[in-house]
Write the structure tokens for this entry.
Amino acid sequence: MSNPMHPKPGDRTMDLGDIELVDITPDHVARLSKLREGHPGAIAALLAADPMARQRAGLNEVEVAELDALWAAFQRIEEVLPAVEKLLELLHETRLVRGHEIAYRLGEMAHQVRRRADRSANGAEVAAPFEALLDYHFATGQKAAAAREKNKKEAEGPASTSSPA
């Protein structure tokens, strides 16, 4: 594992406390200027230029210093971004797998409750505490059955009312 200040893809511990994060709206994102290819060379030329050359060109030293700080922050983000993206991917995939495991177990447990309730003399008492579980699990099947029934009625309806020509 690497240093948390300099994480590598796959690391789970990252220290990004030195990065000042900004939260903007999607509309604002669309209005932002984009860096084009070649920006590192342009920045290097500005920063490497002699202060006298910058003065002759009319450049403000405060703005050059601010550009230097912005560039350092940008490079820091570029350094950690692959590790953050990999961590996000791992979290998303882990969430999907855990969701699948939960859904599978809910299904197994719903079927067990229904089987036990069907075989029990007091089936309503067995199933009652698990009504939310049963509704959740069997809702899709009930919706599908209702849709099939509706489609069957619609298919039969026009055929019986139309007369042969």
The chain has one domain: 26-157. The mean pLDDT is 90. The first helix runs from residue 26 to 31.
